[in-house]
Amino acid sequence: MTQEKTNVELNPISTVNEPVIEIKELYKSFGTNEVLKGVNLTVKKGENLVILGKSGSGKSITIKCIVGLMGIDKGEIKVFGSDITKMDNSELNKIRVRIGFLFQNAALYDSMSVRENLGFTLKRHAKDLTAEEVENQIKEILESVGLSEAIDKMPSELSGGMRKRIGLARTLILKPEIILYDEPTTGLDTITSREISELVLEIQKKYKTSSIIITHDMACAKHTSDRLMILKDGIIHAEGTYDELEKSDDEWVRSFFI
């Protein structure tokens, strides 16, 4: 990714049906291992796009490229209408504040309580808030994920499902317009996975978020997706709704739904 200074002007919030993410001909290699070989995808405002694919197909790499956590070899990545591959770090940070990223392990600070984890994130990006405003926002977002009672707990006291919810609360506290979910239900039992999937839908409805959801969990994919894409051999091999792909004539595509 180039770091050359540009005069990119960030676009305002997109209107309904306008794309908030557009990827064109994205290539990414690691040495001789070509992972992405021309990925093209679009996410519309308010849409939940699920990306499926076998392990190592480049799903997580794709979303890391979207927020500039990983450089690309070639291609275009437009977020809110601006090409992030032409941005410097200052411009990238303005985009990143509008994007939430839920990591697989929730990435909480183990030495901080839930209150401190959320407050630390909020105060880094909203330095003018009073202590009372910070506290109110922490309580509001914990209520949104159904964990108001966990405010003084340490991460070590939380179950896997609770850690996911707190990780999601920390993502939501900055009111992102886009959320990138990396395996949100991995390692959870069936009931807790269903609860997290329900929460993803509640967040989409309440906060009008647009999301990319990386998952191997077909129950999560069915429950949360407006549209699915399947990565194979470095490109988008198939695209459609859950029902459309489940009935695909392509035997390899159907194998995901067995």
UniProtKB/TrEMBL annotation:
It comes from the Bacteria. The keyword Nucleotide-binding applies. It holds the Pfam family ABC_tran. InterPro entries: AAA+_ATPase (IPR003593), ABC_transporter-like_ATP-bd (IPR003439), ABC_transporter-like_CS (IPR017871), P-loop_NTPase (IPR027417). Keywords: ATP-binding, Nucleotide-binding, Transport. Residues 21-258 form the ABC transporter domain. One of its GO terms (molecular function) is ATP binding. PROSITE patterns: ABC_TRANSPORTER_1, ABC_TRANSPORTER_2. This is ABC transporter ATP-binding protein. It comes from Flavobacterium fryxellicola.
